[in-house]
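Practice problem 4.
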């Protein structure tokens, strides 16, 4: 991050991610799981979303700085399985893919997750379930509207909105449905005929 580099109060600066950095990491542009190349390693992770490249590059840089062997760094990244409702993928028995990327969501994280869903090359209906983002104060309606417009612009097949703020937007669109609670949304999903 250029701003952090400018503000760093030290002569020792470690850069990561870009090709001209100390730790360049290159995305392999894979779906649904993110994969990357670093040095001689080509690694498939258990994370979804190319936006995780910065997190992976930071982990590599920190591990290397503290003397962790390259193989151990790569094995740690390769074997990490998210279980915190961020960048998680679950494949159901019937071949449906569920992306869980909602914990402590904000506009930028939701837009990245929606872009990831949109970019996936799959022959299945893409459904985004978007719940209200909390703690936005006076900006709540504006931020929710921006996320909704982004989902529509990305061409997501079905957009299911849950919560008071999303419902208050009153957006009418053939692929947008509003629900005041999760139970009503589940009933709707069951009517869509999606199994498992």
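Answer key:
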């Amino acid at each position: 991050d250029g701003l952090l580099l400018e503000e760093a109060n030290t002569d020792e600066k470690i850069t990561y991610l870009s090709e001209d950095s100390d730790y360049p990491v290159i995305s392999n542009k894979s779906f649904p799981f993110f994969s990357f190349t670093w040095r001689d390693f080509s690694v498939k992770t258990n994370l979804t979303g190319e936006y995780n490249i910065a997190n992976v590059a930071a982990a590599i840089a920190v591990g290397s700085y503290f003397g962790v062997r390259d193989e151990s760094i790569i094995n740690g990244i390769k074997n990490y399985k998210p279980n915190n409702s961020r960048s998680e993928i679950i494949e159901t028995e019937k071949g449906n893919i569920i992306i869980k990327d909602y914990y402590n969501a904000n506009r930028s994280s939701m837009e990245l997750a929606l872009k990831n869903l949109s970019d996936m090359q799959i022959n299945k209906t893409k459904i985004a379930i978007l719940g209200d983002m909390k703690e936005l104060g006076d900006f709540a309606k504006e931020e929710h509207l921006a996320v909704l417009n982004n989902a529509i612009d990305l061409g997501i097949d079905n957009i299911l909105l849950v919560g008071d703020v999303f419902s208050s937007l009153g957006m009418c669109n053939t692929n947008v449905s509003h629900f005041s609670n999760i139970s009503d949304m589940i009933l709707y999903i069951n009517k869509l005929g999606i199994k498992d």
